[in-house]
Structures are given as structure tokens and as C-alpha cells.
Design goal:
By secondary structure, this protein is of the alpha+beta class. It has four helices and two strands.
Length: about 120
């Protein structure tokens, strides 16, 4: 048995699949592999800036949210969420995290400075 329970050519279990199923799996596999270069390529500077700003905010300190509400039966509902980023735990500077993240994603310097809303 292979990872995720999927059989591929060369796997002994693959031979037990019907011809049509084996062909569909091959086609699916080729489509997935063809999508990898597009998914792994450089991203736009704008998208990189947005994604890296989120990471830099996580490096700036813990983030979280609190929610309180009521349902139609009159019960009180509460929600608490706290996120502590690994960059914060390691004590990394948010501005350095932002710049290195953008450079890694685009291969160039950020298009705008980091704004942490300070």
C-alpha cells in the first residue's frame, strides 16, 4: 500500500485496478505534477507583501481574538483564539522577517515598507 492509499504504476496494487481506473489515475497524476511548477513559482510583489506582512505581524507578538454571542436558545457562546508565531518565539525582528520573506518569494526587495500599525 502506498501513501494516502493511492496506487501508482510500479506499485503491485496498481496492477489490480481496471484499465479505465488506471488511466484516470495516470491522467490525474500528470495533471497534479503539471500544476506544481505554477504553484512553486515566484509570486507577484503585491501578493508577497500581503503574505509576508501577516507573517511579520505574527513575529511582532501574539495575536488573538475574543468573541461572545448568544444563540436562539438563549445560550451564551464564547470563543477565544490566541496565535503565537514561531518567529516571535525565536525573537526575530518583524522587519527582518518581512524583508527576507518577500525576497524569498519574489527574488527582489519589498515594494513597500512594513506597516505594523504602530
Amino acid at each position: 500500500m502506498t501513501a494516502c492509499g493511492i496506487s501508482w504504476p510500479g506499485d503491485p496494487d496498481f496492477a489490480r485496478l481496471s484499465g479505465r481506473t488506471a488511466t484516470r489515475l495516470r491522467t490525474f497524476g500528470i495533471a497534479v505534477l503539471a500544476a506544481f511548477p505554477a504553484a512553486c513559482g515566484p509570486v507577484s510583489p503585491e501578493l508577497a507583501a500581503r503574505q509576508c506582512e501577516e507573517r511579520a505581524r505574527a513575529a511582532d507578538g501574539p495575536t488573538g481574538s475574543v468573541g461572545v454571542g448568544f444563540n436562539d436558545r438563549g445560550e451564551t457562546l464564547t470563543k477565544l483564539s490566541i496565535t503565537i508565531g514561531s518567529d516571535y518565539v525565536r525573537g526575530l525582528d518583524p522587519h527582518e522577517v518581512y524583508e527576507s520573506c518577500v525576497r524569498r518569494k519574489t527574488g527582489q526587495a519589498p515594494i513597500r515598507p512594513l506597516d505594523l500599525g504602530e
